[in-house]
Amino acid sequence: MRRYLAVGLDCYLCLVGGGLLARPHVDAAGVPAAVGLLLGPTLAFSFLNQVVLTAVAGAGAGKLIMGIRVVRLPDAGRPGPGQLMRRWLYGLCRLPLQPWYALRSYLTGPGALPLSAFWSSGNDDPMGLRQVRHSDLTTHRNATAANHR
Fold this sequence. Notes:
The protein is mainly alpha-helical. Helices cover 64% and strands 7% of the residues. The radius of gyration is 18 Å and the shape is globular.
């Protein structure tokens, strides 16, 4: 549940930030321009949150608030910028289509398109990254440090 709340917070913060930047200019723009004015800053905030902040602090704003960190497998280290960039692009391309995949699977009948093939369980990250609670990560790092002494 923490991960879903963190994702919701991330989306909310990006949309509010983008909206605040676009607000002074939207009234004078037409609909296509207004969409572009909102989309540009929102994507920029998303990139800064998901890639830059995660590379620097170990998690985006929503995950930091919820006490979650993003780690690289198998060593539980910090992910590199390349991994984070690919993960961000993957999320932009695949995740918004998840409801469509679920609906398509439902409409084509049982077994035609297995729902599990499209709906992510949250544990499968193609970039080899995982989201873990900060307290669990601290415990893991202390235990591995004690074993290496």
